[in-house]
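SEQUENCE AND FOLD
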Amino acid sequence: MFGRHPLAPPRLHAIKRKGRNEEVSAESSVAAKKQRKSTPQSQAASSVDELPDDAAADPGSSGKSKPGAKAPRKGKQKAVDAERPTWPEYFNELFKVYKALNTVIAFCSSRQQIATTFSVVRTSVERILRKPLELAQVAEIKAILPDLIRFAYTPASQIRVHSDRTSGISSNSKGRAESPDPYESFSLKSGRSDEQVLVLEFVEKVKLQRPDLDYNPIFSAPLLSPADVKKLIEKRNDRFQLAVDELILACQAMETPEDPVVMVQKAARDHIPLDPTLPIDQPSTLTHHFISTDSRPSIEEVIAEIEGAEEYRDQIVFRKIFDTKEPQYVELANPISSSIATGLNLSMSVTKLYSHQAKAINALGEGKHVIVSTGTASGKSVIYQVPLLTMLEEDRDTTAMFIFPTKALAQDQKAALEHLLARCPGLEDVKVATYDGDTAMNLRQGIRETASVIFTNFDMIHVSILPHEDTWRRFLKNMKLLVVDELHYYNGTLGCATIGQPAAHMKSIFGVEDMEVVTEDGSPSGRKDFLVWSPPLVDQLKANGQRASSLIEACTLFKFLISKGVKTILFCKASAMKTIRAQIAADGRTDLLERVRAYRGGYSQQDRREIEKQAFSGKLLGIVATNALELGINIGSLDAVVMLGFPFSVASLLGTDQRQQAGRAGRRLQDSLAVMVADNFPLDQHFVQNPNEIWDSPMADLIVDLDNDVIMEGHLQCAADEMPILPKNDEPFFGRNFKALCDKKLTKDKEGWYHTHPNFKPRPSSHVAIRGAQDIKYTVLDITDRDTDGRVVIIEEIEVYRALFEIYEGGIFMHQGDTYLVNEVSHDERCARVVKTDVSWLTTPRDYTDIDPVETSRIRAIRGSTHRAYFGKITVKTVVFGFFKVRNNSVLDSVDLDTPPYERETVGMWIDVPACVLELMRRKALSPAEAIHAAEHTVLNMSPLFAFATDGDIKTECKIPEKEYAAKDSSRKRPARLIFYDGSGKCTGVSAKAFDHSIEAANCRSGYLVTNKLGAKLVLRGILDLPIDEDAIPDPDPEVAFNMPETVVEATGVKARAKIEVEDLEDVQVENDDGQALHPDGAALTRTLRIR
């Protein structure tokens, strides 16, 4: 299940599926007969018959060493010094079968239009072996190499890449008059829609040693050369030999030696595929081994089973255990009424209050403001529920506003409050309402006039409540309680950062002084296990080689946990749902499929509510989510959380105690598990090597960037529209630049009042997006049933930055793990029309984005350097000119598109690479594009420290190495500069803050990002005017230098808006006694970067 390491002692005790203990011979006979009756694709069969005679005579010619001899030394691969064991004759015969399979499948891989169905492969293998190929033999091979071979039934429609008319011809093939119609691949007109085909293929990612200089994988579908095919065959043969060797040695080392042949034959029973279209004699066996959530094994037992699995490869590189914590109770200073006590007992079984609950409620009773920073599931909701009920008992006109960052969280808390009120005698009729973007227009007036409590968000306050404060006066004048939950959520351009100093943060964001800070958590908790999971090396003999897919690892772990009855949430990208569904379906676990759902904020209101209902009720076993469910939501007492990749900050990973994403699990007293599956990014790998930093590093301070003039101006325009501004009264609320901004941006009347500038009229809030430009969304319409019953269903809304790369005509769009063909895209209407389809491949866009400065408005000096940093207007142009059809990381086909570019304007900063450095890199055959890209991400990694940005707030121009190293000169030559821009596209001022502070940050120190990349060092040292020792740079291979195309050219100047004076940095760089860089307002930066 977890991909066994070829050299790990194999145990071959795979979990039995569906109680299928039938004899191999009987089942293989039935399945084989069914396969022989199926009609193979004629073209594929004839193509495989073209195998060269020498391949048939000597299958897998790489098997030069006979079993029992020493393994050969090859390249840098270390030899196995110990004497290899003697193989039983059974394995020698099985190896012949494996080599024949390997040869045929590798040949098919070199001609990607050939689908490797078992019927097609078997025909050629039997011709090589000159005897029948049995299903049991393939199952035995898969038992030996379970992570290398896929042997499962797949819907026939899912293996089609082209229609019959275009079958076997790539859209980029020479001689074609036109590209194939991308829609024809999905036709199910021929054959039954439920037809299943048995597929046999190798699933490891094929990586060429050196791309052919005539081949550009970004613009054409890759094909394997004969040399690549030969190397691939040799590599796979070696893996089989090593696996068998280790199996024999492991069996010999057992206290009671076992027969490895018998062990393989027994294990193979679980690898004979089950045709889902065949009738099942005993349907109940489908859930025979399913463990209910009420009787699931302990987390300790689950981890032990993972570590004992035959497929385990020591992926767990770090484990931290948090022991069970007992509760601490404290009495309230003023006891609550019997009615409220009854409600708490009946709704939540609460009879006593934890220490932090009592402390916070006592402070509220004294009239203090309160901020609470305690662990997940510590009962923080009770802290505002009890005072609210007390206020309502004293005055039924009391109103309260509860602000939550996500709709899912608001729905959860609203339901909990209504449940409590219904059980409090005398308060049953209190009206509670949700007031968000999903609230129907015809209901809003009634909510304003009659609701006592509303659940809303800052977006609605910004666009609907404050601009119409006259209609909200009843509610606002009676409001006695304002609750803002998940305060750490408001980061980047939305407001603040994480949770280092809660008191200072609350003072900054609300302007209040008298407050009680509650941080000591008195709630109990069960045992918690936190794991760091590192995907294993694909080839264990290469220490720095390619690692297994983190997505596959996370999905496999997720599938294993839910199969054990462990309620699990997986945080990852939306596309993971397709992988999970495929894995579960391949196991025949339809019972699990029904209890797994995907969740994303862009789903329709109906879908979100249905998923939330299923989650809250505990019906679901697994949820695949982005970050929409990240914040404090109770989804049926989760047992485990799996996080794919490291979030943008430690706080996002850990929240407050077991902290944010990890804190979703163990929300009651039961034991729980949190696993971070490391991605291949430098930040992830850093924490793999230094996992204690996740827990030992202090949280970043909470900072509200009140000096961001761009954001501040927007709020001033809105505030002045609600009520004219008088500086002497309002300055405490708007920061130190308030008066200057009023004079510059607002309109002043004769009496000294400031009003909204006419350019923002009549509704300033419509021009000011508090979340940046992500308010621009595309609607995805399902038109599958339009022709039959006229139905068109909105299935999702996606942000514009996703829409560009996920909805293009002919592409595949993912929703709830289902695949939809994009039929039409209208950028004018901002919508995409899709049709549900059934394919096993996905599409990835072929695109490029040009980021170009068009006007300079500011220039800054770089300390100690003659070079300059520039800031101004930037245009961003994205072109999607085609897409790839991809299955198992292999490109099946490429399709050309003719779509108009998407262009938008924003602001950003840039630094030109010195011409001398550019020339030096050319002499040394270093790719300027790769060097610039690495240097950009070095600086970009520092952006949260000096611009208070989050992931996506600041972006850069990403360059693709494969494109940059193509043999042909590119007409799209890019200027040699580092460039950064506001990712939101609405000029939020984030890049301006980076402009103010990033240059000296580049003079600091980096622990783990790209500093070992020579090109990046040269670029950054050149910009900083630091000395460069050219003699220390290795001379290039003359042939490589000669063949390197020119894709980057010297940058030219950008026109200035007017005469601009160069700003210096005399007041910017501040250091403390320890040499730690400080922000101008004194807030310490937690990381630094130095180029050496």
Summary: The CA atoms of residues 1018 and 1029 lie 10 Å apart. The first strand starts at residue 149 and ends at 155.
